[in-house]
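The protein record now logged underneath.
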Amino acid sequence: MIAPELLKKYGAVKKSFGKNEIIFEEGNLPSYYYQIISGEIKMSNYNDDGREFIQGIFYKEQSFGEPPLFLNQKYPANAIAVEDSEIMLLPKPAFMKLLDENSSISLKIIENLAQRLYYKSVMAAEISTHEPEHRVLKLIDHGIAYFNFQKDTNGYLINFTRKQIGDLTGLRVETVIRAIKALEKKGELKIINRKVYR
């Protein structure tokens, strides 16, 4: 999103995080702007029963955790590395200066936040009113549009695990598996070597 060279110019540092390492915790106040150089990050929290709910999954060249940074509010979720990842960290005062001095970047950040709000409102409606198959397909189509899933001769490879799909849609893993199989029978999805394609 923001060119790494520009982030470095304003004082950003690159930091490596190992798989399952916590980047920030729910309840902490934000201090940095985070942008992924490589890897995969999830933001999630747990309900009283210990069930994980994934708020979002983020990939290379995406940023995460900005709303609390702008609002100076505590993080509503944990950020955890799904795999080994490299992230640029820019301290909040330097990030605000960067935005103040680069209006085109500010517009990109606003567009990115609007896109996330739109996704949240669409998924909230899906989760509350639609059947599992519809929810799964909607999430997959959103992933294709916004997460740059790779396309090959089989179609778009869906990089979400069955558990991640469940955590993002509020469905149990068993329900996700049944929904994917039903969608395969309808010709909406393909399952090749246990991988899901659209």
Notes: The chain has a mean pLDDT of 91.
